[in-house]
Input
Amino acid sequence: MTTTDPAITDPATTDPATTDPAGTGVLSALHDVAPEDLHHLHERLAARAEEEELLDVAYRTVDSPVGGLLLAATPAGLVRVAFELEGHDAALARLARTVSPRILHAPRRLDALAHQLDEYFAGRRRTFDVPVDLRLAAGFRREVLAHLTDVPYGRTVSYTELATASGRPRAVRAAASACATNPVPLVVPCHRVLRSDGSLGGYLAGLDVKRTLLALESAA
Output
């Protein structure tokens, strides 16, 4: 004769209505929802979070000739552009730590920038018209980034010239460091800064990407 422990249930015969009175089985039911319906649900949740000011950082990804780009924005403006080489997951994790954990995939906030990036890579745009949030840069680094936007499309400056324009002619290494840690590349064009001898220097996405961007702008 066998006995059954009442604390043990057979998952094949268990009635969800009696074992899941709290309704947590709804999560498993989502597997039966069409992908397009889940997409619409996500959009509605993102819009609701935005309306109720619960969304501090919205992000999306876009494809580009230099690889996938992560775009992130706060209500104040664009806060992060990350290349694939930097690691999108790592960039999002840092945003959650340094800006806010209330971060959500909400492409709509970044639609304008995505469109402008398409135009830029097609050679039809020379400047970006989006608000920028430079909270991830501070002190002299922020001053350097502010001056970078004055470097015209198709032109380059040296790190020495950039340091001088930023008010500290001897702070060449600090100017180079500001470029290397620029949180919003492309929009703030640190790729237009070279060494005094004309060599490329460095670039957070790699020198091949820097060459591609400079070639794009010189050909326009």
Notes: The first helix runs from residue 16 to 19. The longest strand covers residues 77-83.
